[in-house]
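Order emerges. For instance:

***
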Amino acid sequence: MVSYGDAVEVVFKALADPTRRALLDALFERDGQSLVALTARHDMTRIAVAKHLRLLEEAGLVVSRRRGREKLHFLNPVPIRLVHDRWVSKYTEAWAAGLAGLKSELEQPMEKVFEIYIRTTPERLWEAITDPTIRAKYQFGAGAESDWTPGSRYALTHPGGDGPLAEGENLVVEPPLRLVQTMHTLWSEEAEAEGTSRVTWEIEPVGDSCRLTVTHDQLREGAPEELYGGWPMILSGLKTWLETGRTLTTPGSLMYGEPDTGDTP
C-alpha cells in the first residue's frame, strides 16, 4: 500500500528534473500532445522523452489517452493541488486557490483529463458523486440532483442560488464505474455563453483504492478557465472527504461555509 508520504515523494522526485518540468510546461501551454510533438521541442531521442513521460505518469502528473493510433499526453494538476492543500494554503490568501488552474487559451479544442487515487470502494465513490448532500461537502456547497438513469436530466444547485449552477443530461450511467454527462454551466453570463461540454467520470478499482479519472472535453478553443479550472480542488476535496470524513480548509474551498471537523461519511 502506498502512503501519502510515498506519493508526495514520487511527485517531488519527478519535479526535481528540469527536463520533466519542461515537459509539464509544454503540456501547460498545449495539452494533449503526442510523443512526437513533445520530442520535437527537445534535443533528445524519443526513447529518452518517453522515459521521462513514464516517470511523470507514475507520479500522476501526466495522464495518457489513446486517440486512434496516437497516444496523447495530458497535464494532471491534481497531485500538485494535493501538495498545495497540505502546505502552501496555510500561508496564502484566498486568491492562491487558483494556482493549480490550467491555462485558458490553447491552440486547439480543449480536452482536460484529471486523475486521482482514493482509498475507498467503487460503491462509496459512486455514492459521493451522485448523492447531493455528499457532493456539497466537496464541490463548493453545490449538490447534483437527478434520478441517475440514462437520458435523465441533472441540475447542480446551491441553497443560496437563484437557480441551477449547471445542468445537463446523463448520457451513460453505469454504476458504480462510469458516468458520462453533458454540462451547461449557468453560474455566469460568460460561462453560459460557452454552451454545452461533456464530463466523463471513470472509476477503476486498484487494490484497496480506486483510480478516478475525470475527462472534461468538447470545450471550445479558448474557453474560460472557470469552466474547468476548479476540478483539481473538487477532486482533492472528494479524496479528503472519503478518506478522513473532513472537508478541505483551503481558502477557496471555504467560500461557501466552514469546514466539517470530523463527521465520518
